[in-house]
Write a structure and sequence with these properties.
Elements lengths: L3 H4 L3 E5 L4 H12 L3 E6 L2 H11 L7 E5 L5 H15 L4 E4 L15 H28 L5 E8 L10 H21 L4 E8 L16 H10 L12 H10 L3 H6 L4 E4 L7
Parallel strand pairs: 1-2, 1-4, 2-3, 4-5, 5-6, 6-7
Helix pairs in contact: 2-8, 4-5, 5-6
GO molecular function, one term: oxidoreductase activity
Family: Belongs to the short-chain dehydrogenases/reductases (SDR) family.
InterPro entries: NAD(P)-bd_dom_sf, Sc_DH/Rdtase_CS, SDR_fam
Length: 264
C-alpha cells in the first residue's frame, strides 16, 4: 500500500468529516502529512475534532459547519480551501444519512428528500465544486472518491431512499469519470459493506421491522464484530488513491470493500 509520502503536501476535502469514517480518513491523511479540509453539520463533533487535531497545527486543517445541500455554502467552503492551501487534490464524498428500511409505499416524503438531498444532491454539489477547482488550478487535475455502498448495486440492502441515493451516486461517479478523465480528473467509487459509523444514528428512533427483516433474509451471514469493515483500513485505500497515477488506472471503476458481504 501507499506510504505517507504519497499524501504529504496534498490537500484533501472530506465531507461529513467530523465523525465516523470521515474523521478516520481525515485523521489518517493528517498523520500522512496532508492538508485536510472537512465540513459537517454537527457543531459539537466539529469542535471536538478540531481540538484533537491541534497537535498537527492549525495551518494543516480547516473545519467548517456547512450544509451540504446549500450550493452557495458549499462553493464558499471550496473557495476557502483554495485560498488557504492553494489547490485541492482530492475530494472524498463521504457524507451520508441512512433511511429506516422503508420500501416505497411507506417512505415518508421528508425522509426521501433528506436522504436524497445529503447522499446524492450534496455529492453532486461537491463534485461540481471540485471539478471546477481541479480545472482552474495549475497543474490541473484531481481525484474524487465517492463512498458508495453494496446498496449501490443491490436492491435489498437498505430502504428505497438510501438504495436510490447510492445507485444515483454510482451513476454520478461514472459520468464524472467518463467526461473528466481526459482532463486528468479521476473518479472512483468504494462499494462499502457494513461499518460501525454514526450513519446508523437514525435507528435510535426506530426502524421498519419488515424492511429490516427483508434485508437480513436477502443478505445472510453478517456477524456483528466480525463482518464490519475497519475504518482505518478504508483510510489506507484513500491514501493509496491519492497518487494520481494510481487513481488514473482505476478511473471509473468500483472498489469493493466488503469482506465479501453480501457474498458474491
Amino acid at each position: 500500500m501507499a506510504t505517507s509520502s504519497t499524501a504529504a503536501g496534498k490537500t484533501i476535502v472530506i465531507t461529513g468529516g467530523a465523525g465516523g469514517l470521515g474523521k478516520a480518513v481525515a485523521s489518517a491523511f493528517l498523520s500522512a502529512g496532508a492538508n485536510v479540509a472537512i465540513f459537517d453539520v454537527n457543531e459539537d463533533r466539529l469542535k471536538a475534532t478540531a481540538a484533537e487535531w491541534e497537535k498537527h497545527g492549525s495551518s494543516k486543517f480547516i473545519t467548517s459547519q456547512t450544509n451540504i445541500t446549500d450550493e452557495a455554502a458549499v462553493s464558499a467552503f471550496f473557495g476557502d480551501v483554495v485560498a488557504k492551501f492553494g489547490r485541492i487534490d482530492m475530494l472524498i464524498n463521504n457524507a451520508g444519512v441512512m433511511d429506516k428500511f422503508d420500501a416505497a409505499g411507506t417512505t415518508a416524503l421528508d425522509m426521501w428528500n433528506r436522504v436524497i438531498g445529503v447522499n446524492l444532491t450534496g455529492a453532486y454539489l461537491c463534485t461540481k465544486a471540485a471539478v471546477n477547482a481541479f480545472q482552474a488550478q495549475t497543474p490541473a487535475g484531481g481525484t474524487i472518491i465517492s463512498i458508495c455502498s453494496v446498496a449501490s448495486v443491490r436492491g435489498l440492502n437498505a430502504g428505497a431512499a438510501y438504495t436510490a441515493s447510492k445507485h444515483g451516486l454510482l451513476g454520478l461517479m461514472r459520468n464524472t469519470a467518463g467526461f473528466y478523465g481526459p482532463k486528468k480528473i479521476y473518479s472512483i467509487a468504494f462499494l462499502m459493506g457494513g461499518m460501525d459509523t454514526n450513519i446508523i444514528d437514525v435507528f435510535s428512533t426506530g426502524f421498519n421491522e419488515e424492511g429490516m427483516g427483508a434485508m437480513q433474509k436477502a443478505n445472510p451471514g453478517f456477524v456483528v464484530g466480525e463482518t464490519e469493515i475497519q475504518l482505518a483500513d478504508v483510510a489506507k485505500y484513500c491514501i493509496f488513491y491519492s497518487d494520481p497515477a494510481i487513481a488514473e488506472s482505476s478511473n471509473g471503476t468500483t472498489v469493493s470493500i466488503s469482506k465479501n458481504w453480501p457474498s458474491a
